[in-house]
Amino acid sequence: MKALKLSIALLIITGTVLIANSIFSQSNNHGWDDPNLDRIPKNLLQQSQNQQNFSPYSINSSIVTDAYGYDNFILGTDFAEPHVAVNPRDPLQYFTAFNTNNTYYTMNGLDWYRNNPTFPGYTMMGDPVVAYDSLGNVYYENMYGDGNNIFGTQIAISSDNGLNWTYTTGNSGNDKNWIAADQSAGPYTNFVYTTITSGQTCNVFRSTNRGQSFIHAQTLTPHNLPGAMPCVGPNVIGGDVPGGCVYVVTNSGNSFAAIYSFFVSTNGGSSFTMKSQQNFVGYLGTNVGGRNSVQNMRTRPYPFITADNSYGPYRGRLYLVYATNQPAGNGNKPDLFCRYSTDQGATFSAPVLINDDINPTANHQWHPAIWCDKQTGRLFVKWLDTRDTPTSDSCDVYASYSTNGGVSFVQNQKLTTAKFKIDCSTCGGGGTPRYQGDYDGITSYGRTSLAVWTDFRASSFGSYTAYYPDYAMTINAQETFIENNDSTFIKVTVPSVKSYTDYVKFTASVDTLPAAGTLQLSFVNGKDSIFSYPDSVTVRIKTIGSVTPGVYGIIITGKGPNGIPVHRRIQNIDVNVATLSIGTNRNGICDFKINNVQYNTRQTITFNIGSSVTIQAMSPKTVGTTRYVYTNWSQGGDTTQTITVTGPGTYTAIYKPQYRLIMNSTIGNTFGGGLYYDSAVTFQFGVNSRIFTTGGSTYRFKGWTGSGNGAYISPDTLGMDTIISIAINNAISETANWALHTVGISSIGTEIPSEFKLYQNYPNPFNPVTNINFDVPKAGLVQIRVYDILGKEVEVLADEFLQPGKYKATFNAGKFASGIYFYRINTSSFTDIKRMIVLK
């Protein structure tokens, strides 16, 4: 399990480096991004060539399981365009390769390893493709060149599924190669065929000596677009010759009205004859910069072909699968179609729609890959599909198969455990439309296929695989803690399937055997297989004798016929130990100690039964304007306590938050600021008096300005809200507002006037002092301001709350020039203005 965690970390680190390098290493692509060529963008090519290889045989895979129990296998982060093949002699051995030279293999159908070939003396240029012959030799082909020009292909050959390699030169050309091997027992058994675009033609090379050398077979025309593909099938016309037909389809015309030309060789690739030319495809998505594009992802209506090598009713049938817009025309959305030929490509059937979404014209279906199983004749197809995204900007991988020779296809199934954005701006693919790979792959053994694709759910070129048909697998342990002479049970369930009709057989094992005692595993009632769905089996784990204390991983593996699909789950069982989960309700914030070791995040630690563990909550913890104060442990007990371990347990130190009130006041005279208050508990803050004298000046309180969610803000400037009661759920800031208190206002008598009135000042003219009388009949805010001849305010004589009475304000104009001035009184219900003259 530690290895799996390490591999995930490597994936994350690697993916981050790839993205960063791509963003900051945008090399000059001028002249490279020819819309009639399907090369990897120059910056990605250089980046991948400089990437260090992983250590040989290092594990590099992990599994992501969705909520329903279905698996996707994550191999790593590469540069798209994968191809995959399965060893016909061992259904658990697969080999896949991604741009530019990133390879993975598995020996058990579950764990994938990397061992990139080192092609001697060559710069690899991408477009990896793979094939096995009937003996289990894997052929891995990759284009090579000088970093700027592509010269052809090199082929690495392994007889042990990618552990060791030999090398040979393959084909000669400059763009998009494919490879096929004869797995039959016919006269051309183990011949290997490779095609590649070479300018305006297609070169076909073959090997008749199991890859020791490749020789030119024929140059085929027309072929000016990438995508020539070979496949091998039996010759069933006039007899039955296994491997007697070698097919090649070429791609020509223009990108939006392609011509598929079908060639066949009936002599092991010595010569080829054109059988037909077909105009099946037009636009695929939208024309962007001379390329077909779906949601700014570049694509192409490649002709994908495969042949039925089985001995079933459709033996010898040649299949073609492609994507094209339906209805035809630029900007519409593509569907997937299958056609088949029973006369070696001379004629083809009417198109059969593969995708079964309710409204095909509303969704994109594109990027197909195909394979016809040589045992069962099942025709497998996988593709990208937007049917689950109304906005069409995200997609899933879907798959289906045909058992009746391409006449119809079973209900489509989603393979991905999470959808992903199509236009991945963070992945680093260059160009407009963006490079995100031009093809994926699928292969099969019997009734089970393995699809491989590039997935952008993590905002990178993720490398993923999944089985199809497939079953979900979940486990649920009755108890994860047992002692000596005890038992527990794990229920293993297949809750649903995707087109899967075979049985699933389960096995159980222990990851590490105990040094003493025995862990006995058995299936309840001997039932270890499921034949219909949903259903389950139950594994019993029994301790016999005195078992060495420890955590034991119970490995449960499910396998279909031939060992595939294969899935694995691991359930940890504590034997004579108990796992304690210790932390706080403020994970990552508050501190605690376990046996005097301090932690900040929740810890899951295993202790022997009967041992003592000391836990301690540490308080308080201040983080910015919030303080956390310990209140209690979840199970009770003191701040520091010692626990005797008797079984699993969860211990949580509970902390309550307190929030700080930040008080701002230029002259002091406040209370309640700078303290921490319990969340949602009412407290008070305020000023001690409305009028405050400091530094020889007198100030009058004018109210509060608050900031922060739930802060208090005064509704006016009367300053009557000197004390506030409030409850807060976060830190807030309160500012006390003050104004100079005008001491030139005095009361003149005890009479209560009946109305507001502003009197003419006296003396007038004056130099420099004059008096202004005014009457206030009711309590309220009174403002008296002085303005110059231009209407500019020059002085405030009053701006305060006054009780009813008669008042006098004194105005000293010593600092003002001679001239005419105005003074005005404002209350909530009265305004008046008068003129006065300063004469110096």
How would you characterize the overall build of this protein?
With 840 residues, the protein is mainly beta. It has four domains: 2-468, Neuraminidase, CATH 2.120.10.10; 471-575, Sandwich (Immunoglobulin-like), CATH 2.60.40; 657-740, no CATH class; 745-838, Immunoglobulin-like (Sandwich). The chain contains two helices and 69 strands. Strands 46, 49, 51, 52, 54, 56, 58, 59 and 61 form a nine-stranded mixed beta sheet that branches. A five-stranded antiparallel beta sheet has the order 1-7-6-5-4. It has a five-stranded antiparallel beta sheet with strand order 2-3-34-33-32. The longest helix has 23 residues, at 2-24. The protein is elongated and about 130 Å long. The termini are far apart.
What structural category characterises the helix and strand content? mainly beta
CATH topology of the largest domain: Neuraminidase
Mean pLDDT: 92
What is the terminal separation in angstroms?
96 Å
**What's the CATH class of the largest domain, please?**
Mainly Beta
Strand count, sense and barrel status of the largest sheet are: 9 strands, mixed
List the helices and strands and how they pair.
Layout: H1 2-24, H2 42-50, E1 58-59, E2 62-65, E3 71-77, E4 83-86, E5 94-98, E6 102-106, E7 112-114, E8 123-132, E9 138-145, E10 150-158, E11 166-172, E12 175-181, E13 192-198, E14 201-207, E15 215-220, E16 225-235, E17 241-254, E18 257-265, E19 273-278, E20 286-288, E21 291-294, E22 297-299, E23 304-307, E24 318-325, E25 334-341, E26 352-353, E27 365-372, E28 379-385, E29 394-402, E30 413-414, E31 420-421, E32 441-445, E33 448-455, E34 462-468, E35 470-471, E36 474-477, E37 481-482, E38 487-494, E39 497-498, E40 504-510, E41 518-523, E42 529-530, E43 535-544, E44 550-559, E45 566-575, E46 577-584, E47 592-594, E48 597-599, E49 603-608, E50 612-617, E51 621-623, E52 626-633, E53 640-644, E54 649-665, E55 670-671, E56 676-678, E57 683-687, E58 691-694, E59 697-707, E60 723-726, E61 732-740, E62 745-747, E63 757-758, E64 769-776, E65 780-787, E66 793-802, E67 805-812, E68 819-826, E69 831-838
Parallel strand pairs: 37-45, 46-54, 54-61
Antiparallel strand pairs: 1-7, 2-3, 3-34, 4-5, 5-6, 6-7, 8-9, 9-10, 10-11, 12-13, 13-14, 14-15, 16-17, 17-18, 18-19, 20-21, 21-22, 23-24, 24-25, 25-26, 27-28, 28-29, 29-30, 29-31, 32-33, 33-34, 35-39, 36-38, 38-43, 40-42, 40-44, 41-43, 44-45, 46-49, 47-48, 47-50, 50-53, 51-52, 52-54, 54-56, ...
